[in-house]
């Protein structure tokens, strides 16, 4: 038997199972956050930097205006900063909901803009931003649901 910091005794096998599940959850979470963060950095930087086929702030602002989102260059810069910031938070604060929520929020807006073209990405539709929004949402709630829920299921009680 192992005694947790709160003085509660936990069966060694329960603790081993919990530790293994948490380890797998952490690896999965870090992998997912890194992949989504990479996509968000790309989304943000192409709005902030004019380089090769990246449009930069001015052209991104024109594109956003053409697609019905006001604000022009300022909107493009804000979106780019939020997207790069979301990516940084997902990697730097892997147990925080803030980065994934910011990513999901910007991708929900992008999905709304792209929805007029249908669902599929090959028609410039909402498919890709919707997937990033869904992943951001899943990552935002994962820390609340998985570790706490796993511990409750194993221990039969409240997590400490």
Describe the structure in your own words.
It is built from five helices and four strands, in the order E-E-H-E-E-H-H-H-H. Helix 2 packs across helix 3. Residues 147-160 have low confidence and may be disordered. The chain is mostly helical. Strand 3 (50-51) and strand 4 (54-55) form a beta hairpin. 71% of the residues lie in helices and 5% in strands. It has helices at residues 12-48, 56-66, 73-92, 98-114, 127-155; strands spanning 2-3, 9-10, 50-51, 54-55.
Using brief descriptors, characterize the structure shown:
160 residues; mainly alpha; two-stranded antiparallel sheet; two-stranded antiparallel ribbon; 5% strand; disordered C terminus
Helix % is over 70%
Give the low-confidence spans.
147-160
Q: What oligomeric state do these chains adopt? A: single chain
- Helix and strand content put the structural class at mainly alpha
The biggest beta sheet is recorded as: 2 strands, antiparallel
Question: How are the secondary structure elements laid out?
Answer:
Blueprint: E1 2-3, E2 9-10, H1 12-48, E3 50-51, E4 54-55, H2 56-66, H3 73-92, H4 98-114, H5 127-155
Q: What is the structure about, briefly put?
A:
With 160 residues, the chain is mainly alpha-helical.
């Amino acid at each position: 038997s192992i005694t947790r910091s709160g003085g509660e005794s936990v069966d060694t096998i329960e603790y081993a199972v919990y530790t293994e599940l948490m380890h797998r959850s952490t690896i999965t979470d870090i992998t997912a956050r890194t992949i989504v963060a990479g996509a968000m950095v790309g989304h943000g930087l192409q709005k902030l930097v004019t380089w090769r086929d990246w449009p930069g702030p001015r052209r991104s602002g024109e594109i956003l205006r053409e697609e019905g989102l006001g604000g022009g260059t300022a909107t493009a810069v804000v979106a780019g900063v939020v997207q790069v910031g979301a990516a940084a938070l997902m990697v730097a604060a892997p147990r925080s909901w803030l980065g994934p929520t910011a990513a999901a929020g910007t991708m929900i807006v992008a999905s709304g803009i792209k929805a007029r073209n249908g669902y599929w990405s090959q028609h410039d539709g909402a498919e890709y931003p919707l997937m990033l929004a869904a992943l951001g949402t899943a990552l935002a709630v994962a820390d609340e649901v998985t570790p706490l829920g796993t511990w409750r299921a194993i221990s039969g009680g409240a997590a400490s």
